[in-house]
From TrEMBL:
InterPro entries: DUF7260 (IPR055684)
Protein name: DUF7260 domain-containing protein
Pfam family, one: DUF7260
The species this protein was found in: Haloferax larsenii
DUF7260 domain location: 7-241
Region span, Disordered: 40-62
Amino acid sequence: MAVSLDSLEAAKRALRRERRRCVDEREAFHAFKREVGKLKATAPTTSSAPTPPLIGHQQATDGSLTRVRRAYERTVMSVPHYDDEYGDSFADSLTAEFGPDVAAAFQSATVFSPALRQTVTSAATEAVAERMQFVDIVDGEFESVESMADEVSTLCDRLSFLDDKPVSERGFNELLAVRENVCRIQTRVDELAATRQQTIADHRRDLSSLVPDVAEYLYQDLSVRYPVLSTLAAVGETISEAIRRVERRLAATP
């Protein structure tokens, strides 16, 4: 009795792709942070002149501000998947990655002050840490999916004995043994599903600051949002049908 593992294989491909992207972004923010660290900060001076915005404009009173922007564009905005995944302008990307407060501070700046350099550096450091955390999440999820795939494959192998001999050719005691065996497999499937549900709940509780729903985020391009649970449900349906077949035969056996 075979159950398709296509969803789990698709999940593993999605996880490999997400890990690659996350690592690329982590390294990009590392590179941006290094570039910022090389730039000289300038102490602000009191001026009554209006502040020319940097974001969305080429003009700036301090060349270092322009160099920060160029560094961001060369690193963060140049990861291979940027256009496909984000496609944001510089202003939108800065707001999304560093938050509106940092973006506003950068927009209103006329010089690349020590305080602004520290603000940008801290934001880049946090972005690196978030990517490192998410890489760990993806690695753990990959191990979980791979383990589930192995478990499901093993359970399907254990169910294959049902195809060795039609239920109509099995005696009463043999049918009882078959039912008991299948029920044990069902218990294991239920345990796996409960474990998976707990993993999803843990992700929602611990990682809400990164993404609202880890599984939905990782598997948004798949045909199912929860490939592990979907596969376990398919196994459960196969088992339920097997039990029904055996019980019907038991009821008809003198």
